[in-house]
Amino acid sequence: MRLFLVLPCYNEQEVLPETAKRLKEKMNALVQNGIIASNSRVLFVNDGSSDTTWEIISSLHEEDPLYQGLCLSRNRGHQNALLAGLMTVRELADVCISMDADLQDDIDAIDGMLEKYRGGADIVYGVRSDRKKDSFFKRFTARRFYKTMRSMGAETVYDHADFRLMSARALAALSEFGEVNLFLRGLVPLVGFRSEIVYYERGERFAGESKYPLGKMLHFATEGITSLSVKPIRLITRLGFLILLVAVAVAIYSLVRYFAGQTVPGWTTIVLSIWGIGGLIMISLGVIGEYIGKIYLETKHRPRYVIESYLKDETDEADLADPAVRG
Ligand code: UDP
Ligand code: MG
Fold this sequence. Notes:
- By secondary structure, the chain is α/β, with parallel strands linked by helices.
- The chain folds into two domains: 3-228 and 303-326, Spore Coat Polysaccharide Biosynthesis Protein SpsA, Chain A; 231-300.
- The chain has helices at 16-32, 53-63, 78-89, 109-118, 136-151, 168-174, 184-191, 214-228, 231-259, 267-299; strands at 3-9, 41-46, 67-71, 95-98, 123-128, 160-167, 195-200.
- A seven-stranded mixed β-sheet has the order 3-2-1-4-6-5-7, with helices on both faces.
- The longest helix has 33 residues, at 267-299.
- The radius of gyration is 26 Å and the shape is elongated.
- The model has no long low-confidence stretch (mean pLDDT 86).
């Protein structure tokens, strides 16, 4: 079984040498125990770093063929860098594991992941067992993030970042998702196949600074919701109905005032039109939005299904080159 580790790196010069060293130890141990093939590799994806990250990756590669490097032409963000790495290795690897370069993901969890893979899982999610080591702020925002995602209709695995194992056919299926707004944590569950969870304790960043300040985090959350769900549009329609309800209440109230003779001329009609028309406009926007949402999802050209296996006559020539074929 040929394993590829894929690590996106953005300005990670402080941690890379240490990460490389620890991964090498882990890979050597796995090879020695006969768990992975000796041609397994570690791929570092340089996401347009402005420091010496790429120089470090290049010299690691010179030093030992275990290390491979992929250099993006500029910074494209964590998700894109990760996808670039995964798609590069997908035809070479039997199985691949993505992880952060800052040693926050526990390297020893790799053993558990591989075990689940051998047990038949195509996707293994690394899920952090607790958030004790996080600051209160990070813990709070993270919780809100997952809650909001769920309520907005985007299916994600709770407390799972991008530390995960994927089999070659899961990668092949993932490659069929043609979207540009990339939110892997939401896409991978859509791929399907048997998936398992491995718990691990997430450490602190070994060195360097987080590349995800609050602004980027908010952007990431918005990206996640809007790329997976058109629920925000439905909220407009609901709001429209709510306002229409208010309009009815206002209508009753203002008619009572009118007949009691407690209004100035014209007030009733104006108040009624404001709320009534407001509600109708909102509903109409929601309806239009509903169609735009459909168009949006269509333009992603996502596969409608992924075939896991086909039990058929021996004689029937398979015209499916790959078991994971788009519909
Ligand atoms: N990363 C990247 N491109 C970016 C930002 C981050 O490739 O534009 C990588 C980074 O090098 C690291 C991983 O994504 O390997 C996670 O980033 P970080 O550790 O800064 O995020 P945090 O753990 O603080 O959420
Ligand atoms: Mg980190």
